[in-house]
């Protein structure tokens, strides 16, 4: 494999990894949306959320993000 082919192959691998990362981020947002919506939105859908729904959605999203970060750190640390 010549240097040009090696660079192209490396760039291709980087692009694939970027797309995998984007897909994973999209899946995380979808999971967060579904989980927090089901947990927090209890009334009928109107033009705005109630105060309790807003608080619940905020706390749910915050906890979800914190757990995801801890999980990612553990997985990264465990693979080394």
Radius of gyration: 19 Å
CATH topology tier name: Helix Hairpins
Query: What's the story with the biggest beta sheet?
Result: none
Annotated CATH homologous superfamily: Mitochondrial import inner membrane translocase subunit tim13 like domains
Distance between the termini: 29 Å
Category from helices, strands and their pairing? mainly alpha
Q: What's the CATH architecture?
A: Orthogonal Bundle
Record field, number of beta strands: 0
Residue fraction in strands: under 5%
List low-confidence stretches.
none
Number of individual domains = 1
Rounded mean pLDDT is 84
Series of secondary-structure elements, N-terminal to C-terminal: HH
Helix content: over 70%
Q: What keywords describe this structure?
A:
80 residues; mainly alpha; Helix Hairpins; 2 helices; elongated
Provide a compact summary of the structure.
With 80 residues, the chain is mostly helical. 82% of the residues lie in helices and 0% in strands.
Please tell me about this protein's structure.
The protein has 80 residues and is mostly helical. The protein has a single domain, classed as Mitochondrial import inner membrane translocase subunit tim13 like domains (Helix Hairpins, Orthogonal Bundle), CATH 1.10.287.810. The chain is built from two helices and no strands. Helix 1 (3-40) packs antiparallel against helix 2 (51-78). The radius of gyration is 19 Å and the shape is elongated.
